[in-house]
Amino acid sequence: MEITTNKKILSVNNLKKYFRVSSGVVKAVDGISFDLNEGEILGLIGESGSGKTTVGRSLIRLYDDYSGIVTMDDKIISGKRISKANNKFLRRNMQMIFQDPHTSLNGQHNIFSILKEPLVVNGILKDQYKNLFSDWNQIIRHFKYTLKRDMLKSELLIYQHKNPLIAEFQKKWLKKLHSFNFDQNQSHDDIFNRISKFYEDKQSLMNQMINMTYKQIELLENSYLKYQKQYRNNDLLIDEKNLKEAEQKYLLTKKLQKQSTKKVEMEAKIKTANDKYKNLLKFKREYSNRSLNIVKNYIYEYKTDYKYFDNNRISSKEFKQYNFNVKQKYLTLKIISELKTHQKNLNYLSVKTLSNLIDSLSNYFSEQLAVIKSNDKKYDDTNIKLQINKNWSFDFSSYLTENAKHLNKVTTEISKAKSDIAQMKEKYKSMSAPEPTPEKLEEVTQLLNVAKAEFAKETKAFEDKYLERFKQLDVSIESQKKTFENFAKDEKEIDDLLKKTYRKFFENIKSNSSDKKEVKNTINNYKTTLSAKMDTMKSYEMEIRILSKDIDKIKHYFGIKKDPFSKLHIKQIELRKLIYKSLEDVGLLRQFAYRYPHEFSGGQRQRIVIARALISNPKVIVADEPIASLDISIQAQVVNLLKDLCRKRGFALVFIAHDLSMVEYIADKIHIMHLGKIVEEGETREIYKNPLHPYTNNLFDSIPKLSNANIPFRASNFNLEYLAEQRFPNVAKMYEVNAEHNLFATEEQFKRWTSVNNEAEA
């Protein structure tokens, strides 16, 4: 099922990220804006240094000192400082996939630990445990024997599956090793491979055992979830329903012996009113902090612009250009001063109103820039500064009035809520205690006892029905268990024979060569290979031991076993369930959880990184060139995986890449970036069909095609002439070509580029 909706999940408005360097200020990202819906994929394209990765790192707040407004699911996640709650929301709901999977995975930890970290840090495990234990005791009571039956069946099936496999394996290798001969016509490698075939067969055996155990564990976990759903939907047998309702009625009646119904109802009202009051206070505090943070963020942006204009002023070679930068510098300084003066009285404005304020200031900035005169035959700083101070007339009054109005509304609501609570508390105090009604309590107690007796009767009938079956299952399990334990004797014999065979093999090498150095090197090489095979076996054996413990822990999960550590065992099962599912979602096996990053190929490591990003069920994923370091043979697999998961899970994906053919395949819309700016944007189909910007055309010309495979490589000499046309006094902005296509250009460039394209089509 694909999830693609029109619900906006990520909104980026005028994102800017400047870096201060020794020579001044560099605009790494300048004025980036876009929106993403659930299940939508945005391709961010550009050559190295265009600012793509800086956008991704800013969104995820690896860079937090950027300007602009970024909202995710209507929560603001931008600004130098954001609230603890919003930061937690960001960490849980936005994840990043980095270019090199090896460097983004901790090589000291196995995959289980790596995937566990985001679950713990983001509080997902805590929520999962809270949900599970909310009715765990009731479920294991109501489904006691059903759970036990499922457990016994699974245990028996595991033994019935693995015992014949082990018996066949041992019989085969006892015979082989007893009759093993060293054929002199065979090379050392052939003989070594014949012996080492044991490890391949054993690995195959263990794989079958592990897969069967995983299958049974999954079935048991699903059984519990099925019974949990039945209980929560009240899909119970009549005796179980009656007991559940009788218990609830008894607790309520017992409470009413001390408090009247009206008092109980008033208590509930007071609690609701208190919650409302606390939420209003929280809203006021968070709203104020958010608005103030946005204003401070804009002040920071203007300060950076101020330094940028000042740097341009210093490097200007002409009076006209110098004075133009002076105008921008002092106008920016004036805006900073005005915002600082009013910021405390703008802290209850909405995001939209604050954006309108900044847009109005930007328009006023442009108007003043055109109005202020300068003598362009000299450095005219003093005159420009005087004109700005004299002519400044931007009116904040409408914004200050709206802010005061909103503050008054919130304050009034808080006062009313506080007053309502006080009145309810007074009313509660005046209420008299109820007359005890022992006969009513006696009545519900009797009903409860009847329900308990009926439940016990039905349970006993169920128990009697299944008791004989349970005994049969126990006997069968015990018999299979003894058979399994008896394999230990043959296993020891096989191990001894294997060691003996390897010793003979090494002695045979020594006897067939007089070169001691060569013999030593040959034997060491074989021992290294053998050691690697044995290490692999150890990882399988460890996994089998862990699975055996998991089966035992499920008995605690089902309430069959109980001790002070039962809840700890259950938590471990829940954790493993989440981690195994995340691996399976990206096409990896459960047993990979106990291996280390260096044991995987590049494509598998990238899948693990994707699993880590997805395990917290985020709303947005930023994929920073996730296929750049992978083999071309597996790039398509990873891209297909990301696309499928995006559609199924409904998260928004920002896909940063150089590979234009991959972006064309995966993205719904694309933005072309050059030197920190978006130069062309729109629907993928439209941009690829009708590229207009010279930089976009240059990128598309560089896509490898079979038709130009015979053309020798030549360095790209892209002409940056279009940038010179956008310098002072020319102004570039985003123009709409059509509903699915926008182009960043000056007015003259827009007319020229679109007319050339129209002529070509004609």
UniProtKB/TrEMBL annotation:
The keyword Nucleotide-binding applies. GO terms for molecular function: ATP binding; ATP hydrolysis activity. Keywords: ATP-binding, Nucleotide-binding, Transport. It comes from the Bacteria. SMART domains: AAA. The keyword ATP-binding applies. Residues 10-700 form the ABC transporter domain. This is Oligopeptide transport system ATP-binding protein. It comes from Mycoplasma testudineum.
